[in-house]
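Extended Data, record Bacteriophage T5 Orf172 DNA-binding domain-containing protein
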Amino acid sequence: MRLPHYCKADLKMCLKEMSFRCLKFPSELRPFAAWVPSFIEERTQVLLRDAIRKPPSRVDVEGLLYGLQVDDPTCPYDVVKVKIGRTTHINRHYNEHLNTCPSLRYTILGYYPPRASPESATSPFALQTDLGVAHMKPTDTVPFSHRLEYLAHLVLADVAANAPYLCTAWPTSDSAGLRLGVIQERSPCTDCKHVHEEVFVFRRFPGNLRGKEWELVIRPIIMKLALHVEFYSAL
């Protein structure tokens, strides 16, 4: 993902804006603070601000986002690789991954929107129980799924590099830009020969929270951005 560069003066100037015009309801202004988290670096905040005020592509489609843990035996104990992608058919897409990159093995962490159920109706954070390949039958989609994927990748790249969730100040601005995470060096996949830009390496939580990176960090970020895309984006 090639991103523009901003000098410090430009960053400060861009961050002075407090609101943006809603695409779906042009007469309304929406606060940036509601959608741009303070725990990401200022540069990422500006990029996210620029992205959420732009209309989605006319060829964008409905779909869903998913998370797959890449089971890599070479990974250190304190990190986890997670692939965040979009699809219109998660079961078929999962099988395509296995066929395209056979040396990699994936564990399904979850998808959004979750399958409609009494539990998800009560709480959007309810644990997903239909994650077996034969049992995944999503009932809902989000509009402009390519746009949602781009926004999610933008934020998650920052979060993976800085791991603000490991700071006691999380999720405030005091946890931004600490470089507690992993700086990835991407290289072509040995199977498909492509660089997997959608794979992020996260520092794991310590102690009892280890293994909860999807539930406590990644999925909430996707959910919040999905709300913006669903309710406030328009062509």
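Summary. Residues 64-117+130-233 form one domain.
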